Amino acid sequence: MRKLITLSQRHLTHVCSLKPFKDTKWLMPNGNPIGAYVYNCVAEQRIPIILNDPTIATWYSCGPTVYDSAHIGHASCYVKLDIIQRILKSFFNIKLVTAMGITDIDDKIIKKSQETKTDFRNVAKKYEHEFWIDMSSLNVEKPMIITRVSEHIDTIGQFVHSLLESGMAYAGKDGSIYFDTSKFPDYGKLQKVQDIGEPSNEAKRNKMDFALWKGYKPGEPSWPMKFGDGRPGWHIECSAMVSKVFGTQLDFHAGGIDLRFPHHENEEAQACAFHNTRQWANYWLHVGHLNLKETKMSKSLKNTILIPDILEKYTADAFRMACLMSNYRYPMEYSDDIMDTASDILNKFKFFLKDVEGYANRNSVRCGDYNDKLLEELQRVEESNMEAMRNDFDTASCINSLMNLVSLVNKIIKADTGDYTPVPVILIAEYMTFVLKRFGLKLTDERSDISSPLLDTLVEFRHTVRKKALSDKDKTLLNACDVVRDKLKTMKVQINDSKETSSWVVK
Questions:
Q1: Are 455 and 491 in contact (CB under 8 A)?
Q2: pTM for the complete prediction?
Q3: What is the maximum alpha-carbon separation in the chain?
Q4: ω before 33 within 30° of 0 (cis)?
Q5: Cα separation of 90 and 86, whole Å?
Q6: Does residue 204 contact residue 178 with C-beta atoms inside 8 Å?
Q7: What are the E-state strand segments in 331-380?
Q8: How does pLDDT run across 165-193, given as a tens digit for each residue?
């Protein structure tokens, strides 16, 4: 039976000879270090990323339970995971095979189905479709593999049956199948066991035991199995689906911090028991909550902001910049002040890239040499940014280094002495564009209703008029230029005036 679930692919079915890392519970796999370190809750510290194949890694993300619209808490989680995936692919040259599980059978979906008198499958399809539209609008790359619970019932059934046969699971008095946590000594290795597992009931032997298969209830969807009709429990779905796709071991397993316990703890326990291994997922990545003024955002608190609502006010790039400026593991506060700051930093980068283009194409003759100090600074920033990414994907430090580079180059552009060629400035702009786009920023004016050529013409004309007005000290014309600037600002177009030229970006 296990052969039906375990894929025999190169490196994916490899069972590593694991060794404890220092004095931690985390077992260090055999393989090839990629030179990066990531925090792991099992080790409670940063640990080296070691892959069996130095260029290939497997990644599974817990997807949404599709019973309602996604909110910006989901956006924060999946944008940050998208950034990490892009870093692994672009800066560490990892061929990342990505999968995401969609929970389309669940208590909440059944409840929504009953409330709306709609088939549970239609409820799930509606909100899953909406979820992918939201992710696309945030420029989150779609996983290569999408697994849905409803499409893997047989696989889940085989998984449960195997755990029953091995004695790691038992049938409860209520017709459900439970995992026996007392027979798994490592239970609690992701997080100290708390009183927040599944609710206690008389059908369970131990308080922390959890349902692998929920017994049949009238009015709920169910499937026939040898061990009894019913439907999958919440935790079993990911372990079974991942095992079918990736085999006996997984490199990266990611999700929100709220999933660490009991969901991920239970996944690890049942997968280790099924595969008879001491460690199933080598790297657990957990994204911190998105908070509203020190309050966690959640549907139960009814304080959610939907993704289309935030994109009415801010661009997807601005939201991603806010995520880049934070640490993925820690809580991120959402407020207008935070978003305005992220938008301002994004615009500084966009203005800088436009100003460099103007600077490089000016008619003034430059017969000087390269600015060696700029080239040295560029090399220093390249090295420090790689070090930051090796150190648990520290994107905030990268953004800070790039901003310091912008300030340095802006002084040179503003002075424009003609002593140096523009080559180092152009190289810096190209590096900056490379990094920001590899982080998933589009750097386009995605919200403008005015065509770029028309804006270019208008801003260029205004700059010519303003330059003449400044020379002649013509207050009437200067006021007129200010009116044009302010009106464009109401249309989300911001103008940046300088001595030689003016540029614009969409806020």
A1: no
A2: 0.86
A3: 92
A4: no
A5: 6
A6: yes
A7: 332-333
A8: 999 999 999 999 999 999 999 999 998 76
